[in-house]
């Protein structure tokens, strides 16, 4: 009997969908997020969800940030030492907010947006 594991890869044990995104972040950014998470009794995934939520809200509130994100090219080389891929498991409401933001602002570079959201979030919490 053949089992297609690809079909189940992005599912939780109960069969509900798992929202997985990947983003390149540097070790320094990862350390800052872990420090934030530890200080607020969160894990790294929850801290990344906070950063993406913050980025979605900032797109609506900050014209400068919105223009910066929209100017990010769709294909970009790794910059700022952001060479490690970090898997992010999003909560359903965070994923919905991200999808709504992508549709509202016609974001074609999701990874660029996630990276910009993380950078803006880290600047805010300093």
Structure description:
By secondary structure, this protein is mainly α. The protein has one domain (16-125). It is 59% helix and 11% strand. It contains six helices and two strands; from the N terminus they run αβαααβαα. The protein has a two-stranded antiparallel sheet. The chain is globular. The model is unreliable at 1-9 (pLDDT under 50).
Short description:
This protein is mostly helical and 126 residues long. It has helices at residues 5-9, 27-39, 44-61, 63-70, 92-105, 110-125, and strands at 19-25, 84-90.
For the record, the count of structural domains works out to 1
Q: How many strands appear in the DSSP assignment?
A: 2
Give the strand line-up of the largest sheet. 1-2
Mean pLDDT: 81
Major sheet size, sense and barrel closure: 2 strands, antiparallel
Task: Give the N-terminus to C-terminus distance in angstroms.
Answer: 54 Å
| Helical residue percent band | 55-70%
- Poorly predicted runs are 1-9
Structure annotation, total helices = 6
Strand content: 5-15%
Q: Could you say which structural class the secondary elements and strand pairing correspond to?
A: mainly alpha
Task: Indicate the overall shape.
Answer: globular
Give the SSE string: HEHHHEHH
Rg, Cα atoms, Å? 15 Å
């Amino acid at each position: 009997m053949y089992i297609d594991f690809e079909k189940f890869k992005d599912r939780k044990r109960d069969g509900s969908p798992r929202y997985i995104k990947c983003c390149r972040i540097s070790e320094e950014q990862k350390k800052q997020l872990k420090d934030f998470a530890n200080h607020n009794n969160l894990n790294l995934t929850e801290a990344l969800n906070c950063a993406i939520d913050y980025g979605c809200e900032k797109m609506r509130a900050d014209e400068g940030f919105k223009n910066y994100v929209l100017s990010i090219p769709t294909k970009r080389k790794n910059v700022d030492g952001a060479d490690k891929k970090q898997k992010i498991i999003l909560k359903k409401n965070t994923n919905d907010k991200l999808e709504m933001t992508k549709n509202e602002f016609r974001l074609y570079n999701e990874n660029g947006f996630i990276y910009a959201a993380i950078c803006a979030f880290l600047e805010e919490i300093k």
